[in-house]
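Section 5.1 Outputs to date
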Amino acid sequence: MSGALSATPPLTEKNQPKVINAWCSYDWANSVYNLTVTTTIFPVYYSAVTKDAFGGEMVNFWGTRVSNSVLYSYAISFSYLVIVFLSPVLSGVADYSGKKKRFMQFFTYLGSAACLGLYFFTGENIEYGIACSVMASIGYAGALVFYNAFLPEIATPDQMDRVSARGFSMGYIGSVILLLINLAVITQYEWFGFSSKLTATRCAFLQVGLWWIGFSQIAFFRLKDKPTSHRITSNILGKGFHELKAVLKTIRSQEATPRFLLSFFLYSMGVQTVILLAPLFGESVIGLSGDTLILTVLLLQIVAIVGSQLFARVASRRGNKLALGICLAIWMSVCIGGYFLTTITQFFVLAGFLGLVLGGTQAISRSTYSKLIPVETTDTASYFSLYDVSEKLAIVIGTFSFGFINQITHNMRYSLLAMIAFFAAGLVILLLTRLGRSQRAAAGISAASK
């Protein structure tokens, strides 16, 4: 008996099923915000209640007259810019103190509390509603930096593609389930005892906040910080900058990591812009109704589950570069198809392809970057803050480019066609990047052989 027990290899720190499942469950927890609040229900609710409160699209915001849609766009852009400037410093502090989970918890509670607060937004209190939407966006984006930073700590490189894909898959599934529940409550509000559809819609924001804060406890229970001996003092921000400078110095000495970040930045301009503005494109160009647009979003989420798993297998068998290259080629084809789009059926077909590569691009991009992080480093949050900053800046530049081209051409089809340039530039840089076996990959293979 004792001989049999001693022959059993000890559990390694990484690839522990319970920890990986708990990490993936955070995608299940927070993705409901992105689908319900950012993409579907809240934008429609916001537009309706502000028009009703102010008698049209022009609203009074702190004494200034501004369009409700412009104000909302500025608010979201502002929240992204806050994270762009804040996350690199805070991630350095988290690495210095070894308390990534604490920062992840802070942003999670901030975001989920803001979603709960949206219940009290009724239109005329627009300053309050904008403040809650900004805080929710900051909470969502801020927590992701530290959540992603746990990936290289819990999985070896040979498992990162699979684990990353599983996380995104759980996020897509969870968000679809809650959105379907929300839509059922809103459309059949009398069955659930609500006096109006608007009241039922406000309760959807409560459901998002409770879902987010509730299911995130699974991840918080299993994920563990690795506190350092460094004391938290008044010059902690300076220490955060020091950690960030050290990471930037390391990246500059590498070849693959800066090139991949540049490639990711370029193709993210296209990815994020097309995803954010696809519903607007369908409404303006094809004339889709609100219900059809929500159905399209659901289709995207469901197909993205298949895409994340499919391209994780491609990456595992043929390499991450090929998997991402195929994704980018399909993205360019989707843009070309969108230019010639004329019918609702064609729109749904393109949405299916878009969902397929959305899941694959997001999952493989995250795992590819994780593999490029040096195996000996503990500054994973600082590394992923640069990844997150690249994505957020890409959103700002990409959406601005889309709007600017639409403004000068008065044709959104040209804006969509122009996104090909971002995908093509990202693909060229990707092909010039050597994504061979990284230090983490070598360490993972070595660990697996023991």
